[in-house]
Amino acid sequence: MKNKLILAIDGPAAAGKSTVAKLVAKKLNITYIDTGAMYRAFTLFVMQKGIDPQHQSACEALIPQVKILLAPTGEVYLNGIDVSKDIRDPKVSAQVSYIASYKAIRLALVDLQRHMAGNQSVVMDGRDIGTYVLPEANIKIFQIASVETRAVRRYEENLSKGIACTLESVEEDLRHRDYIDSHRDFAPLKPANDSILIDTSFMSVQEVVERILEIVHKKVGLIHA
Ligand code: CDP
User: How many helices (H) and strands (E) does the chain have?
Assistant: First the structure.
């Protein structure tokens, strides 16, 4: 398709990527793909099977048994079951970065991500979208915020969803995941050379959305979905 827009949004945990990506996609009337939800769904399956998430080959052996589907309405399905809520459990968050560091699992999920993006305009968020999954993206955003700010945001989000946690445990989880995500060998978390950095520490969601829409309009002008 001509005039295809690919917008990649990467960054550390709880930087507000998915909230912003969803709103930007809605505004542009294009598809949003949450790649973190896929790693979370795989992790949930590993845990349901009673397998140690740090046992790489046992986790990778499950690849053929895992079917993940992201519904256009935002729900996440694991082998036909809606797991949208379960994948946000802090127990899943605590293990997901191990699963996401296994190359075979990444390759399987990246295949799915590229297939989902297909030949349409998309907003995709994750850790390696601009560097590895869709390096041809027209626009690459790297969204950051201080770890303290991110912890407060995720803590409040969890409370509003009825997910039990403490501010300290949330901050600890973010630091732990960021460390593993940015130190893994294959497709680690890092800004693409041609990415635009947005520090959202002192910005509202609406301000970030507007900033990204501004970048989109400036960079691709009259692009149509
Ligand atoms: O929403 P939050 O920032 O907590 O994380 P997420 O986007 O749901 O991603 C959960 C985890 O999946 C991350 O901590 C990474 O370990 C992994 N992930 C990844 O490795 N690559 C991606 N493209 C997306 C997520």
Answer: 8, 8
Domain range list for the chain:
6-217
Does the beta carbon of 126 lie inside 6 Å of ligand 1?
A: yes
| CA 98 – CA 205 distance, rounded (Å) | 29
pLDDT tens column, 149-206: 999 999 999 999 999 999 999 999 999 999 999 999 999 999 999 999 999 999 999 9
Q: The domain 6-217: what is its CATH number? A: 3.40.50.300
Pairing of strands 81-82, 76-78: antiparallel
Helix%, strand%, coil% for the chain, nearest 5: 50, 15, 35
Residue 196 near residue 142 (C-beta atoms within 8 A): yes
pLDDT at 126 over 50: yes
Q: Is the pLDDT of residue 15 over 60?
A: yes
Q: How many angstroms does the Cα of residue 70 sit away from the middle of ligand 1?
A: 15
Closest CA to ligand 1's atom 23: 126
